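cache lookup: miss for this entity combination. No prior model stored, computing from scratch. Input as submitted by user K.M.:
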Amino acid sequence: MQAEQLGKQVNSPEGELTILDNINLSVDQGQSLAIVGVSGSGKSTLLGLLAGLDTPTNGKVLLDGQDLSVLDEDGRARVRSESVGFIFQSFHLLPGLTALENTSLPLELLDNDKAEQIAKDQLALVGLSHRIHHYPNQLSGGEQQRVAIARAFAGQPSILFADEPTGNLDQATAKKIIELLFELNQKNGTTLVMVTHDLSIAAHCDRKVVMAGGKISEET
Amino acid sequence: MKTSRFALRAFRRDWRSGELKLIASAIIIAVSCLTSVSFFTDRVKRATELQATELLAADLVLSAAETIPNNYIVEAQQQELIYSLSESFRSVVVKNDNMELAEVKAVDAAYPIRGKLRISDTLFAKEYETDDIPAEGEAWLDTRLSQALQVEPGDTVSLGALTLTFTRLLTYEPDRGGDLFNVAPRILFNRNDLPESRLILPGSRVRYNLLVGGEQNQVEAYRNSIDINNNVRVRGIKEARPEIRTALERAEQFLGLAALVSIALAGIAIAMTSHRYATRHFDNCAIMRCMGLDQKQITKIYLIQLLILAVVAGLIGCLIGYFAQEVINKIMSDLLERPLPSPSFKPVVTGLLTSLITVAGFALPQLLRLREVSPLRVLRHNLTPLPINNYLLYLVAMIALLILSPWQSGETKLTFYTLGGLIITALIMALIGKGLINLLGKLQPRLKLAARYGLANIMRRSRQSLVQIVGIGIGITVMLLLTLVRTDLLSNWQDRLPEKTPNYFLINIQPNEVKEVNNYLQSFIEDKAGVYPMIRGRLLRINDEPVRADNYSNEGARRLATRSFNLSYIEDMQSDNRLIEGDWWPENRSEPYFSVEQGIADTLGLKKGDTLTYNIAGQELTGTIINLRWVEWDSFNVNFFVVSNPEALVDYPGTFISSFFLPASKKSSLIELVKEFPSITVFDVDAILNQVRTIMNHVTNTIEFVFLFTLLTGLMVLVAAIQSTQDERLKESALMRALGANQKQIMSGLIAEFLLLGLITGILSALAASIIEVALAEYVFKIDIVVNPWIWVAGPLLSSALILLTGLFGTRRVLSSSPMLVLRQA
């Protein structure tokens, strides 16, 4: 994944506001990258642009060699369904679907015939075989995040984006979730881009960029 | 005081952020719908009544066998009402050797107060309306009299001591239709000539009439102010011809029904919108509670906000309603025969009260949940106040609106059936709807992704889905019901007055002429004309008790008891009659039997098994009432209050009567008929039929229009239902997009959801409409209806199409929602 001279400006009552300014970044396949920084530093905006959820004002993002900036929303959606997995801070499971259905959703969007079996396997990997028919509101926070991890890996994405994946969890659960995440990441050889406040979690990653005022202030 | 200021500030903020605009629009649309219907129906009702008063030639008619008491006239003068005096009686009109018994009417310049006279200059020339009456020394004769006397305009005729110049042919009098079979030819002349005629002497049989006209409330006030004694007969619009009364009452029932349902639908829409508002305010309330506000203050804040909302939105609604009905009036002006009377201000008051009650009944219960929000919610977000049971409150609000509703149906029975029907329908729909959703839930794993996702949405919000199904379902049910009942009712009306409704009556056919007349008629009319015997008889005794006018307090009964009846005999019951009680003639007819029309039986207190004794041409005939009949008088066929089996009356002297349809092109055949059979009197009812048809068309247009408004409120429920789930939908769609779903996939999910919802709703609506239709037909309208099978096609189709289109329109933002939402709303 590669970002070249990435910038994002928005219009505000005070005039044009620069949220991201001239970001250059590349992550190799299988590598993990932590994006850290204070609130409002532009972490989530950067994640959104890298994952193709939003379009930059200038610059471009290459995912698996594909330039996202030349694609329309449906084109970017196709790239996301084929190559990208997500884990969110507030889990974002569809409340009307069971754990199994939530997990198989990305595969079903790709018309994968084995969606259900793969989803079951993934749920087994995160230790939720016994909860596959439960609805999100019947699961604890940790369990919901494990379903989200199973969902993220179900489509065997080449790159995984995680936005504060432990932000809504207690410390002990957070630790387990991070271990699970890195374990699966390693097993699948997935590229991982993770936004976090937690420096100890960031330390698990191969690389770390620190954001400040919309720019990369430090890169290790 | 502090809380009030805070409430005002909060109101401004909420208004700016668009939160309250949703509820306000619901109220505005509801109130404008209701007030425009109210304004318009108010005006149309007044116009329809005005038109119907034409049949009386006034708004109120007082008639008596003696001179109208002077105090009635003085009272009318004092109340600044328009009035007209007239006298009618029978007398002989003479021209040379020709003498003809005529119905004489002496009128003053104010006649007629409602409607217009129509005249023509010569026989069969084009008729035209006139505001004049015959000048002094002149007379207007109808065609029959002029033909009988063989006079032409310009000739003179003698009436008592008067010699009058026949100047115009009288072709139409608005109030002519009163008593069809006792009408002799007409001569109309100026009342100023009356004394000179010397026709009115002590003991003369004269009908004195006082016609009164004015604003409806003035006339009502006049009617209430005068002390009416038993000798004076009063007829207002309600006492006008029965077929007009029926048309008006049914129109009122329909307009009432439409308005009633609009109120219910608006209530549902407001409840749904307020539910969304309340849900979105849980967090605000939790924070305010944290900051120290107690439950009372929270309640006060929202009460103030709602009050402002109700008053402001109510007023705006009234204003829009007023302009809407003006627009409607413009659109309808081509259809309406005359300009409508200007609207009254009553609907504004009703509109405001409606707004307040609707808000109190449908929005307040939702907002009262906010006081239950725990301050702990700031820490534990999932702490949501328990949903309260609102149905009782909704019911109370509905009843309050019903009482308030000025357009509520004239009959409490209909109101009761409608309300009962609505509640039962809602309950049954909720129950069956829940069953259907659960059933579909079992199929869910086997469904394709889009269908599964759509169904999951319905199931997850099963409570809300049920409210939507019930709300929209009732809307669709009403749409189906009004279409169906309307069609059925109108076809029922049209059936009663089909194209070939008899437009001529022949009376005074002598027994020896029956065969010849019948043969003659067959030569120029298409359908067979029924010829019925008519025998005059006077009721002497009921169960051996002499019949006296004094036995009855009711004026109608007193007249019936003392006048001669037209009796008839018949082998088989006529097709427009229905047995209410008892059987038709038995095989063994050992004694005379009577079949009595239900209305007259009620008036005279007759029941099956009673014996009636008639005096017919000096002989007494006693028979037993073997059955009671319902007669469809609107059919214009010959019908009788009392008929006997043929054996009982066949030997008594009498004449025959016939009615038939004759197209205008064949009118001349009648002149030959009259020449051939001079004693036969021809009576033309075309004019009356045309009047009845015009009023019915008028009513039909109004009903169709009001129905459109109900449709609009029904759709508003749909929009409110979709809006209430908008936030969740946006979030979910963003997530689906983030996971790689393209627009088509999101769209398929939405289509599946709305189609499934539409299908369930449609099936339930079709079921409910069928049941209610049968119940209404059976118990209220008393008509036979076979449920149209197309309802089961139209219901689901209409419902799916409407829900799908409105749903996709309402969720168009969902389709374009940015996947970035998943990061921003974390």
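stored under new cache key. Chain B touches chain A through 27 residues (CB under 8 Å).
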